[in-house]
């Protein structure tokens, strides 16, 4: 059942007030009013005495010897809003919380480090996790109880029992905290693999074979619901299929990408993807739109289009980037974080998906004589029905088949589609829009920066390159500090949180990609400098892995090492891939050996759960197949670069210069009045060629 609930104070936080309007007054205001996170500001007028996560708040808990209640969520989280309305806006609940606890609200997107520690704790305690994430901790921050969403009565009862136990028998809670602390610290320990690295094709083949047992052969993706899109899974499988001539795997990837693009998960009217599908056919989404999903999916569809030339994939790229440009881009080239799942419905109540869904009666009235064709195309029928007379638009066949079945030309169908989308978009935009989380996160911005680079590389659209460069300069000018470190967040001209490993890893990756389409060395050298910084402040010499947090940051219960790939690839797997590439660019043996050791450590777990290590498997392909260094030198180098980038070549990196250059891959290779292409493997180079076609013959997918 979908929860409907009244809009209370949110409209004040996110709408403009005219000069003649009287300022709104609130019965309650807490310390979150001074924060910039939209999620925290949503709770600034709760009767709960919320505090932000900082040393002052934590010290207060120790001084007063009070339990700490930590509640973690994010702006686009539907069930976070439900629990707020049911509990955190209730004065009786607030009285229980304020009397017995120091209450801390955390935006998980601003503080993924804190979120990870307490998520691990809740998973140990309950066997599952999610958001909202609610934890009770001792005054020193060590957790003793937790869970996700609680109904009001459950919440009050649990908090009263824990508070009473802390008064009557605190030793019991301290004993449990000690045990749980050890469990948390053990969850992200990476066992050092002292065996000699042995990366081979059989290992990868066996992993893919085991993984394929979970494939949904009808709708693509995994054979279960809910379905998350997991872009790094399909980036690897696409490459694996290509390099191993495995048509079955390629067919499965194409099936998945096609069904995702057909599904209600994809916004057929406005472009862009929702976060996940609640059903197996990608039909009904959890309606929030996240920047990181759309960024990674653009990169995935760009590579898939480059390999297959499937026009559907091209449309997904262009429509998604149009959506990002229209709804999630700032004037200075930064990107916002998300759009909420909830928006106001016709009854002026917040409802999940209200902005996106349609009734049959609405569509009949709007489309008139076009409705029958439209309803067949987007399944305004039993296949597309959701609930409460609402339909989520979904396709189930390709345009050519549909046009033939309905005896119209493909050109006529495209004309209909353009008209339908323009008409419905105009009407939809008159509805109350979902709330926007307008903070900027460096890591997610870097993912979208790379998405624009990948789209430009494949489609050659200059505006995409302009957007990529504008965002890259935003990161340089606003998020990169004088000491070489990065900030994690940005809003209203202010950055306040030190960067995490994910910020460095994704920015390095994006800047390398930007170098490979522009040849501007500053992007490559900045990547190297950021990498050196991570070695200074994030690297663990004992495990040869990188901590998620800098050694400059205040210590948490546990200093985690993120290495399992998820919806976003793990920061350590991205770093390992970066180190492999940078080792080639700068002939840096230490980078190469570190990447090798990192991959070797993770092989101990990869066979058990291959889909959780797809970005590591992608790195392993670099070791088990030829990996090409392509150097383009001369006056026509950038023209040759553009031609080369039109081809799907996942097993290569590119160095480029118009002039004499001292970089290892370019040194002593400049010849006046000539543009030459050098193709090398393992520091062994073929004779230079002058035409892109000749170079492509030297680069095999094997």
Automatic annotation (TrEMBL):
One of its GO terms (biological process) is carbohydrate metabolic process. Coiled coil: none annotated. It comes from Neotamlana laminarinivorans. SUPFAM superfamilies: Six-hairpin glycosidases, Thioredoxin-like. This is Thioredoxin domain-containing protein. It comes from the Bacteria. It holds the Pfam family Thioredox_DsbH. Gene3D superfamilies: 1.50.10.20, Glutaredoxin. Residues 1-21 form the signal peptide. CDD domains: SSP411. Keywords: Signal. Residues 29-183 form the Spermatogenesis-associated protein 20-like TRX domain.
